[in-house]
Amino acid sequence: MAEEKVVRVKQLTRWQRIGVASLFVAGAFVLTGAAFILSGLYNIGATREHWSVTNFIITILRDRSVAVAAGGIEVPDLDDADLYELGEQHFLGTCTSCHGTPGDPLNPLYAHMLPQPPDLTGAFEHYDAREVFWIVNHGLKYTGMPSWPAPHRPDEVWTVVSYLERLNRIGPENVGAEDNVLERAQSLDTCRRCHGGAGEGPVSDLVPRLNGMSEHYLRRALEEYRDGQRASGVMGPIAFDMSDEVIAGSAASYAALPPPQGRVNPDADLTLGRRIAEEGIAGQDVPACRSCHGGGNPQVPRLAGQSERYMSTQLKLWQHAEYRDASPEGRLMSIIGGRLTEDQGQAVSAYYATLDAEPGR
């Protein structure tokens, strides 16, 4: 009689048993979660707040994501009048539609959003400058908070961040009392709020001076903003709502105003700036600025009398490979601007800022 073979089953170790049990538990959680999701029992309507545990998880996820993504961002001097005064106009012109005017009740329509748009007066109580910048620049998924309309325009985003920091530091009642900016913003047309008009300059040196600029250039610039060929999270949405007739009227209005006079910066290297403007830099393959901006072509913007800070900021943008305008002129400037160093851009900007502008140039 053949000997019966005994099969011995190897007993699982303690950790193996724990592993198997964990797989069963995890599988049960997955199946239960899938069944709950497919059941449709969770109320997704904005009339009901999330469960406390849901809010807790979302808040942790959001804040950790923002903190990690914002690490390493370089913060400029936020206590800069050019930044926060321009940021104030951007905020009042766009952000208040959802977030409300500082110190005033929120519009009932937006008050019933879920999540509700926060009162940005306290933005800096919860986040630092890097994190506020990241949120304004990139937005937040599934909250209604959009990203900045123009990628790679940190110069525009920092103006809003600067204003919010000031708003948080001195309080909305003090910001509004400084010069009645809200009343002024509501009483002026969209262009004058930032660019000024007859007898008044721009709200900030970061804004171009349009008075006396060529009507042809102004019209082309607005059309390119409207068509998305120029990158600006401020001008793009404004120009999008402008008809051909409104664009033509605005361009003609500014072209008819007296052009600005030059301003001297005693600390600037005007010798280097003049050489770049008149001769270029042969070793860097940079042509003379006046070869295009000399005033002979009404489609080319005038540089004389323009704000030094505005011009140098624009040249810094051209020096970054990710910043591009789709227009032919924009593509050309991306090449030339990329060949200038920051110091050279500052010098040529300072030189042109000293020159008196001629009408229509």
From TrEMBL:
Source domain of life: Bacteria
Keyword Transmembrane helix among record annotations: yes
Domain annotation Cytochrome c: ranges: 82-168, 268-356
Keywords: Electron transport, Heme, Iron, Membrane, Metal-binding, Transmembrane, Transmembrane helix, Transport
InterPro entries: Cyt_c-like_dom, Cyt_c-like_dom_sf, Cytochrome_c_Oxidase_Subunit
Gene3D superfamilies hit by this protein: Cytochrome c-like domain
Transmembrane segments: 20-42
Signal peptide: none
Protein name: C-type cytochrome
Source organism (scientific name): Devosia salina
Lineage: Bacteria, Pseudomonadati, Pseudomonadota, Alphaproteobacteria, Hyphomicrobiales
